[in-house]
Amino acid sequence: MRPIKWILAEDHPDSMEIIKYFLDERPDFELVGCCTNGEELVEMVITVKPDLVLTDINMPRKNGLQAVKECLSFHPSLKFIFLTGYDEFAIEAFAITTVDYLVKPIDRNRLMAALEKAKSLLQFEWGEGEAEAQKMKMLPLKEQNCTQYIPLSNIYFIEKVGKKCLVYTKTQIFETSEAISKIMSRLDDSFFQAHRSNIINLAKISQITPQNETYIVYFKDYDKTASLSKLKINEVRERMLL
Fold first, then answer.
1. What is the pTM of this model?
2. What digits encode the pLDDT tens for the residues 145-202?
3. Which DSSP state fits 154?
4. Which of 50, 160, 161, 179 shows a CA-CA span of 20 to 30 A to 108?
């Protein structure tokens, strides 16, 4: 993966130096410009075309929110993280899908977590995160402004509920708006679409029991169950014997 090009917009010299210091330890992020007001930020984004912007909100000549909105009008894939001494702009910031909103003084670990969110989003959009996840047997799962990576071996089943899909693991249920067919395309041969609304992990099955016009799938050391279409029971049995 190529380095992520980023710009820092900050009108306080001390804050600028702290952020630059934190990012110096990340060779996967390449600083391509610094500026001290919103107008300079817009001009720099036009010129440099960065992947990511870290920006203060209260800046002279044009605040960070206004500048980012303007940048998004001509660079809609731009990712941005707000850095501010105030939390009153958070709702407006998340309304334009910010990667994160960090309140000063900036905590290093919090900043690193925000950078990982931005990196995951960019990898997903560039198609690199998905390829890497497949090598590592991970499911990249996109929801709103972040991508989570779930080990395939942790997944028991996936269920479509309304317009959402739920991914069931031992300790957590992940939610996404992605289509079940798109999720299925990222899984390996351990998984089988057992029903129009269920994908099951064949390696986790402990028992299959008939119930009315369908079958119920039980999993090892797990109390939730999935549905299996009677039209697919023979195929599942064949797959389980392989």
1. 0.54
2. 567 778 898 999 999 999 899 999 988 898 898 899 989 988 888 999 998 899 999 9
3. G
4. 50
Location of structure tokens 């702009």: 89
Query: Which residues are 149's β-sheet partners?
Result: 140
Q: How far is CA 166 from CA 56, 133, 183, 198, 206, in A?
A: 36, 19, 11, 10, 21
At 28, which amino acid appears? D
Distance CA 127, CA 67 (A): 28
Neighbour tally for 2: CB within 10 Å: 10
Q: Is 209 exposed, middle or buried (0-12, 13-18, 19+ CB in 10 A)?
A: exposed
Q: Enumerate the H helices of the chain as residue ranges.
A: 13-24, 38-48, 64-74, 90-95, 108-126, 128-135, 180-184, 233-241
Contacts of 30 (CB under 8 A, 6+ apart): 3, 4, 5, 6
Is residue 27 classed as helix, strand or coil in its secondary structure? coil
- At residue 178, the 3 state secondary structure works out as coil
Q: Which residue has the tokens 């130096």?
A: 17
Euclidean distance between CA atoms 129 and 118, whole angstroms:
12
